[in-house]
Design a protein that fits this description.
The protein is an alpha/beta fold and 233 residues long. The chain contains 8 helices and 8 strands; from the N terminus they run ααβαβαββαβαααβββ. The longest helix is centred in the N-terminal third of the chain and has 13 residues. It starts with 8 loop residues before the first helix and ends with a strand.
Amino acid sequence: MESGFDSYAEKYDSWFMENRNVLYSEAALVAYFLRSGEKILSVGCGSGLFEQILRADYGIDIRYGVEPSSDMAEIAVARGMTVEIATAEDYVAAPGTYDTILYNGCPGYITDLDKALANSRDSLREGGKVILIDIPKESSYGLLYNLAKTLGTWDHPLLEGVQPKDPYPIELVTKACWRTTAEKVEAMRRAGFGHFEYAQTLTRHPLYSGKDREEPVPGCDRGDYVAICGIKL
């Protein structure tokens, strides 16, 4: 299955390794709603980079993933994951298979989020949870990325002096369609989730967000990376 991330796997990993404070700030947010011992599925697991960090630093073992990019999946498998090559819209597990389903960094790359979430609900045990984590459209990064996407480049006078020194690869920016936090919550509601909780990180302007590692804080009012946790009703 061909994916927008095929041929960009190494660029994806290398960007995060060059921006380690962003990587580890985001990894701490991913760990926020997860618990050791849960059976977790990572939708859009990419190269398994975050799962590797969660295993090593937080004792959270995510063994199962879904990823449409065969290039990304190959790296994730090498990092110890079992990965099915499929889109979030196409993947369906047996009812009650998972305790938690994680969407880290991928909601903006999923065309039919309603279908994906409906599949996830069916795959969760009763009382299981789904976690959506990505850049909110209304955030500083969301506005900055949408401007870069519209311009088709980071090399533009409108972006001079306001972008990080090493911005996210433009090839990956242009493939995304970020949703607001409210839009994601409504999609989760429609799929049958409720009792929502929020956490956030990258609370500084994008120009300064990579200078230090941040610990996540509750809420969704100022973070450029936001986690929404919903319980299956």
